[in-house]
Amino acid sequence: TQPSWTPAKFSIALGSGTESSSPLPFCVTCDNMTLSYQHTQSNRPGADLHATSPPLGPMDAYGQNAGRLPLNAVVGSSSAFLGVLLQVGFGDGATSKLLVGALLWAVDQVFTLPPDLRNAVEKSLNSLLTSDVALWGTSKTDGSAFSEGLSLRQSLVSQNGSATQPLLDQMAQVSLHALADGAVTDNTGIAHAVSAGAATLVAFMDSYDLWGLFAGFSPKTHNPVTCPDDPITGVLCPKDFCPLCTLKFQIFSQAYQVAQANFERTAWNLKVADSSAKFLPNIRVGTINATTIENRAFGIAAGQAITLHVVFVDSPLSMGGYSYQDYARLVQAIVDTARNEVNREPVKQILQWLGHLQPESGHPAEPERKKPCHRH
Questions:
Q1: Angle, in degrees to the nearest 10, between helices 93-110 and 115-129
Q2: Fewer Cβ within 10 Å of end Cβ, the chain: N or C?
Q3: Which DSSP helix (H) or strand (E) runs through 205?
Q4: Is the pLDDT of residue 220 over 70?
Q5: Is residue 348 part of a domain?
Q6: In this structure, is residue 315 part of a structural domain?
Q7: What domain of life does the native source organism fall in (predicted)?
Q8: Total of domains in the chain
Q9: Within this chain, do residues 67 and 208 fall inside the same structural domain, yes or no?
Q10: Is residue 222 part of a domain?
């Protein structure tokens, strides 16, 4: 069964120039994958339109001549966090037309708008509801994959909920596709790093996403976007919000409960000043030794020993919707915690992991068991 989203990654060697290609494959499972396009004609039952793309192959549009790709499109693809809305038809011409009609009907029940104003409201609603929540690309390998994808997407939207067979055929010929936030398939970067050959990693992150890489973790019951777990009490959200949820691709053999319990038992729990606790409840530092299972979506082989050096930074702040001064206060809280003499040993360990500090002579780089500096 093909998952709703397929992992992929952009890669480039910095400074290699506009004629350079990607050192790593964009998608490891796309070779034999095809894309299907279908348009249902509500006024002509049984006369639906269909088209199918050629096999995607290695998706050279993002590998060959990758240096020509516009940086804003690559960055936009990697952070298009609303892309999951495509799974429920958001941005689709027919869906938006129905929504606009329903909203205007509701407005008409309350207000009598002048025709010019009503038309302006309708136009604004259409523009809002057909806004792109993802970026669109094609199979073009000359650096124009994004511009051609945008052009085709705009052609489709301009049909106002309709489409033609020639347009579907054109979309299929160049494999029009959507690209959305990498967090949809791996919000840690760890799976991609392991796929690229890394055996020892340092992860600076919150304490939620990592466990999705281990056995037994389900996005249907652990969804931080619409129903966050409590990082302090460990209470898990019990609601199923899929398909508006992120996918969790297991790459490690251990059960997440076991890995989590082992980490909590051996990790340092840094002392956080009371003045910083509002934005920084805790920082935990420790190591997890894991073993991979085969994961074809990421091209990971089974049996690889992976060392994860983890710095968990938990905070009530998320990716947006807050006073932006609070992010500066969070950074200051992290710095103050790192400078606290009580936290000297775990901070020294982090610096050693990052290669900024050599282990002391006669001492291992990391103790087998780490006693917490502070327990809440």
A1: 140
A2: N
A3: strand 200-205
A4: no
A5: yes
A6: yes
A7: Eukaryota
A8: 2
A9: no
A10: yes
CB neighbour class for 190 (10 Å; exposed up to 12, middle 13-18, buried from 19)? buried
Do the domain assignments include residue 365?
no
Residues 86 and 209 in one domain: no
The rounded distance, in Å, linking the Cα atoms of 204 and 275 is: 22
More confident residue, 327 or 356: 327
pLDDT in tens, 118-168: 888 888 777 666 667 789 999 999 999 999 999 998 888 787 767 889 999
pTM greater than the 0.70 cutoff: yes
For residue 339, report the phi and psi dihedrals to the nearest 5 degrees: -85, -10
131: Cβ contacts below 8 Å, ≥ 6 apart: 91
Q: Which residue range is the domain that position 174 belongs to?
A: 36-91+132-181
Overall average pLDDT of the 187-211 stretch: 92
Same domain, 158 and 200: no
Q: Which residue has 């990082």 as its token pair?
A: 231
The verdict on 206 and 345 lying in the same domain is: yes
Residues 6+ away with beta carbon under 8 Å from 112: none
Q: Which positions ≥6 away from 289 have C-beta within 8 Å?
A: 305, 306, 307, 308
DSSP state of 202: E
User: Dmax over Cα atoms in the chain, in whole Å?
Assistant: 83
At residue 233, does pLDDT exceed 80?
no
Decide: 31 and 50 in contact? Cβ < 8 Å: no
pLDDT of res. 227: 45
- Residue 234 confidence (pLDDT): 41
